[in-house]
Design goal:
Distance between the termini: 17 Å
CATH topology of the largest domain: Rossmann fold
Shape: elongated
Order of helices and strands: HHHHHEHEEEHEHEHEH
Strand order of the largest sheet: 2-3-4-1-5-6-7
Structural class: alpha/beta
Bound molecules: guanosine-5'-triphosphate, magnesium ion
């Protein structure tokens, strides 16, 4: 159900495909054995056309099968494909492969009939050659589609892979506030590195497990970190795709970001992201809490308790202490010193689950069809 973009297969170029098909066909013809010349040549020519067309048609159709089918994609993935390479082009070029497979089979079939019906050895060779010429021409016509698909693959294989059936937490905030670092620290194991269609910036997709449920965390570098008016079309499409994932948004706020974005701008951004992603629970994190001029008085106590949980497991009756600021409701955490993260993980899992239980009969976000 989760599309693993990395596993999209490469496709051959048209001349490589022809080489592969014709060399197999020649080998197949070499294996034909019949002492009667007419029968032998007939079998050879038929075998060549059968093998060449099988190799081409099967290979083309295999690619169509192995590439993700847009009609079965969750809405988020479909929207990503739209932003990355365009769904219409995607469909068109895959359908060209189907067209090519069909044409090649037809041509082979027609000329096999001619070969079977004649007793003239020269005419058999001639029919085989003619079929090869037409087959090559068809495969050449598919060539641009093969090239398009190979290029698209380079873009698509970097897209984030999100499982629509598992809860997903979107991490947003201004540049450099610590989004990726937080995902790294909250995740068990190494987060996967991906990218959004218009940016070369790396985004992280991590997860953690809690009571056998898996929670995904997805990064948004370059996506939600500047005002919407400045966006180009592809960026807007990628942002629109975000509407289809995530039940919880973690927004990182780093006050007095040195040389970065002002507090005011960050809070404005927060409002913009809230509007963009309605119906989500928002958790605002005061990030890099270790750098605060004045640390929360519970800091050391929580740091010690959480370090012990990490080492020995959390006791069932352990109190979940979030470093919540009573005035703003922002939660303090530090990704580098691992403070506030254990409680945060429990908190977001609880929010994500509550979202699910509110709508038990509903399909997961992003899983509905148009
Ligand atoms: N002291 C401290 N530094 C942190 C913390 N989290 C992140 N940093 C540092 O802040 C810098 C930016 O962190 P990133 O995680 O790359 O920030 P980001 O939001 O992913 O940045 P972009 O992807 O560029 O938008 C890095 O140098 C991190 O080491 C933290 O909790 N405490
Ligand atoms: Mg980052």
């Amino acid at each position: 159900m989760k599309i693993v973009w990395k596993s999209i297969p490469t496709v051959l170029f048209h001349d490589e495909l022809l080489d592969k098909a014709y060399s197999r066909a020649t080998k197949a013809a070499d294996r034909v054995d019949d002492s009667h010349r007419v029968f032998r040549v007939r079998k050879q020519m038929n075998r060549m056309l059968q093998t060449a067309s099988d190799v081409i048609a099967e290979t083309l159709l295999e690619w169509v099968t192995d590439w993700p089918s847009l009609d079965k994609l969750p809405v988020f993935d479909e929207a990503m494909v739209e932003a990355a390479v365009g769904c219409d082009d995607f469909r068109h070029h895959l359908s060209m492969l189907q067209w090519g497979a069909k044409q090649v089979r037809n041509i082979a079939g027609q000329n096999q009939k001619k070969i079977t019906r004649t007793a003239n050895v020269e005419f058999m060779h001639e029919s085989r050659r003619e079929a090869y010429g037409r087959i090559s021409s068809i495969v050449r016509q598919v060539g641009p589609s093969l090239e398009w698909l190979n290029q698209a693959r380079e873009t698509l294989r970097k897209l984030p892979s999100i499982d629509p059936l598992e809860p997903c937490i979107v991490v947003a905030g201004a540049p450099n506030v610590g989004k990726s670092a937080l995902i790294n620290s909250l995740s068990s194991g190494k987060p996967e590195v991906a990218s959004y269609p218009f940016t070369t910036k790396q985004l992280h997709v991590g997860h953690f497990e809690l009571r056998r449920l898996k929670y995904q965390l997805v990064d948004t570098p370059g996506l939600l970190d500047r005002p919407m008016q400045e966006r180009n079309l592809i960026e807007m499409q990628a942002i629109a795709a975000l509407r289809h994932i995530g039940s919880v948004v973690i927004f990182l706020y780093e006050p007095s970001q040195e040389g970065g974005i002002s507090d005011e701008e960050q809070l404005h951004l927060l409002e913009e992201v809230r509007e963009l992603m309605p119906e989500r629970d928002f958790v605002v994190i005061r990030s890099k809490g270790d750098k605060a001029a004045q640390r929360d008085e519970r800091w050391d106590e929580i740091a010690t308790a959480e370090a012990a949980w990490v080492k020995d497991g959390r006791p069932i009756d352990a109190e979940i202490n979030l470093l919540t600021d009573s005035e703003t409701d922002y939660i303090t955490a530090s990704a580098t010193e691992n403070v506030g993260l254990e409680a945060l993980r429990l908190h977001i899992a609880k929010l994500a689950n509550a979202q699910r239980q509110d709508r038990p009969m509903e399909l997961p976000e992003g899983w509905h069809r148009r």
